[in-house]
Amino acid sequence: MVFGIAMVSAAFATACGPPRGAENVTDPWLRGRLTFRPVASAQAPRAFSPGLHPVFADEPEGAVVYAPASAAGKARIPLVLLLHGAGGTGARMIVRVRDASDQTGMIVVAPKSVGVTWDAMRGAIGPDVENIDRVLNKVAQMYAIDPARISVAGFSDGATYSLALGRLNGTLFRSIVAFSPGILIPVAPRGLPPIFISHGTSDNILPIEIASRRFVPELRRQGYSVEYHEFDGPHAVPPEIAALALSWIAEH
């Protein structure tokens, strides 16, 4: 995590303003709407390529996708969009959930943020959304993704972004997972996908008292179903929490 609480709070004030270039003044988060719309293919099953791969061969440091061998043979495969924390990478983020992906048979795709962290944390939303659209469209060409079982998850700044992006695109994402989010960005939501939140009680990066313990009641007031788990630990995603979250996704 690169930013402290003060910087995150300042970024929050900036992120809540209308994005530059938004044409519809009634929807200040217009640029947060993903255009990706997966369609179930009626074609013959494509070749399944298990393991960890760059999404774009000419961008090895960019988005990566992990396809567990346990997903082979499925006609339609669940997909999790996984968002890293500030200063992180998709490859390092996938390590946190790889075992859980193997157990649940879900493909995980982890893009790299355009900047050091996700756009809404430092300014107007938009550039990362455009890149995520590009990544999702490519992964849908690589694997037989189930259009009804796409979820978004993230850690730290990525958790903050997953809560915003997931609520903005709640008719696309079946569920939302936030591991130790820092802020709850107010957005114009679509749909009410269920939400899973976890947070360490000893988190000294994004303290639980000013983060998840405030967000969970607010989200429930907004009508969301929230599965909430506190654990005795720091700013992290313990393996048992990752396994619990992906199992929860599989059940929804």
Short description:
The chain has 252 residues and is α/β, with parallel strands linked by helices.
Explained architecture:
- There is one protein chain.
- The chain has 252 residues and is of the alpha/beta class.
- It has one domain: Alpha/Beta hydrolase fold, catalytic domain (Rossmann fold).
- The protein contains six helices and eight strands.
- An eight-stranded mixed beta sheet has the order 1-2-4-3-5-6-7-8, sandwiched between helices.
- α2 (90-104) links the parallel β3 (77-83) and β4.
- α2 (90-104) crosses α6 (239-251).
- The chain is globular.
- The two termini are 30 Å apart.
- 46% of the residues are buried.
> Which architecture name does CATH use?
3-Layer(aba) Sandwich
- Structural domains: how many: 1
Order of helices and strands: HEEEHEHEHEEHEH
Say what the CATH topology is. Rossmann fold
Structural class based on helices, strands and sheet pairing: alpha/beta
* Principal-axis shape: globular
Mean pLDDT: 87
Specify the number of helices: 6
Query: Nearest-angstrom radius of gyration?
Result: 17 Å
The proportion of residues in beta strands is 15-25%
Given this structure, which CATH class is correct? Alpha Beta
CATH H-level name... which superfamily? Answer: Alpha/Beta hydrolase fold, catalytic domain
The count of DSSP E runs of length 2 or more, i.e. the number of strands, is 8
Estimated helix fraction: 25-40%
Largest sheet: 8 strands, mixed
Strands of the widest sheet, in order across it, are 1-2-4-3-5-6-7-8
Distance between the termini: 30 Å
Task: Flag low-confidence runs.
Answer: 1-25
